[in-house]
Amino acid sequence: MSNLRSGLLTVEIYNFQLNQDGAGPGARSSHAIAMVGEKAYAFGGEFKPRVPVDNTLYIFDLNELTWSVANVTGDIPPPRVGVTMASIGQTIYVFGGRDATHAELNELYSFDICTNKWTLLSTGDTGPAHRSYHSVTTDDQNIYVFGGCGVAGRLNDLWAFNVVDKKWARFPLPGDNLKGRGGPGLAAVGGKIWVVYGFAGMEVDDVHFFDPATEKWIQVETTGEKPTPRSVFSSVAVGKYIYVCGGEVDPSDLGHLGAGRFTHEVYALDTETLVWYRVEDGSGGGDHPGPRGWCAFSGGRRDGKDGLLVYGGNSPSNDRLDDMYFFAPCLD
């Protein structure tokens, strides 16, 4: 725990590296994780570039600090990388990714944590086109899917799946300013859907939001201690702030086969004032993830605090990681 000041933003920070016992996923990247209560569910990923590891669903108890394997039934998703997960209530949703043949996918699955049953909700021409390395976020009733790597290039479309009606809705496309991209940040804050940074053939540093009430896209100009362009970072919305942790700031010449230059930095964007703040977070200690990208991450709560769970990812040495951290900013 530390009390630190960055600009005019005072943040009390709780950083923890979490011990792990039991049969967990092990080292991997391009996987996904979602929290329900104080349990985290992990799925997908790779140890070797572009080679999916498995389709096992792992459960991590943040109180007991122990992994277990879910005994699942139903429409079990095949192995994949570049996949996303999100939770609403007692249900986890898994969308898209890339399979072992490097084909982009567009199936949407749900997993009921009470019955341990997988259900295929949509596929084919229903819903978003096939993609991987896209981003998702949620509100009370909707899962939002944005961007990613499609069959014919990077995408910039925004969709919502309503978990009550079980129907997809496609929103208007943004203008040319919001280029198709992979690995962006996506957050639902203040009734708007925010797109932050990403990789659009190069690392970019633009910020946009979509207002569902007006069905308009707006590009915003941000100020303050603005992060350098980056993608495949971990992010979470806490209150009016969007936090960005780590990510790739310079891609590898080998593309996804290699490790680019990663950062450890943490920044916060005030979505009301549009000011960025650098958050000093004790990155020199053992309770900080350090430089990495392509992590599994999820917003959630631990010890009564809202924060960001970060698990695994790719390192500057191109080795996959298996450590886990929880970051909780408490604003004054």
UniProtKB/TrEMBL annotation:
It comes from Mikania micrantha (bitter vine). GO terms for biological process: glucosinolate metabolic process; nitrile biosynthetic process. GO terms for cellular component: cytosol; nucleus. The keyword rRNA-binding does not apply. The keyword Repeat applies. Transmembrane segments: none annotated. PANTHER family: KELCH REPEAT PROTEIN (AFU_ORTHOLOGUE AFUA_5G12780). One of its GO terms (molecular function) is enzyme regulator activity. It holds the Pfam family Kelch_KLHDC2_KLHL20_DRC7. Keywords: Iron, Kelch repeat, Repeat. Its cofactor is Fe(2+). Gene3D superfamilies: Kelch-type beta propeller. This is Nitrile-specifier protein 5. SUPFAM superfamilies: Galactose oxidase, central domain (SSF50965).
